[in-house]
Specification:
The protein is an alpha+beta fold and about 130 residues long. The protein contains three helices and eight strands; from the N terminus they run ααββββββαββ. It has one domain: Aspartate Aminotransferase, domain 1 (Alpha-Beta Complex).
């Protein structure tokens, strides 16, 4: 699937070192989840499968955070819990910190393990596991 132009615009607003991180993350996400749709959602690049947010990244004060919405349920190493639902993250201050093999594993897990964030409002704030 073609990357949304708004994601390239997001990258263009980053510092050169952060742009390098974002460009690599986007390429690897697109390689690992070629069927995913992408857009800037809540001001950050996010990839979706069947309308459900799967993975995205954002610039924080000291790093670029890569977040998997269902990452706490993955059976993999390298991700830290984030927030009150099932999300998990990893942060990168430099492009050399990105382990593309680990990233490929996280992306594979993200296809298999998903919680239904798309319907969180209709489920009264509860996140339910999907049947993937």
């Amino acid at each position: 699937m073609t990357r949304a132009a708004e994601i390239d615009a997001y990258h263009a607003r980053q510092t050169p070192s952060d742009r390098e991180i974002c460009d690599l993350l986007a390429r690897e996400i697109e390689r690992g989840l070629p069927e995913a749709a992408s857009k800037v959602w809540h001001a950050h690049p996010v990839w979706f499968l069947d309308g459900n947010p799967i993975v995205g990244y954002s610039r924080l004060k000291d790093a670029v955070r890569l977040m998997f919405w269902s990452g706490q349920s993955f059976d993999v190493d390298g991700l830290a819990p984030s927030g009150t639902f099932q999300a998990a993250e990893v942060r990168f201050a430099d492009v050399t910190e990105i382990d593309t093999a680990a990233l490929a594993g996280w992306l594979a897990a993200s296809r298999e393990v998903q919680w239904d964030y798309e319907h969180i409002r209709t489920n009264r704030g509860l996140v339910k596991r999907t049947s993937f």
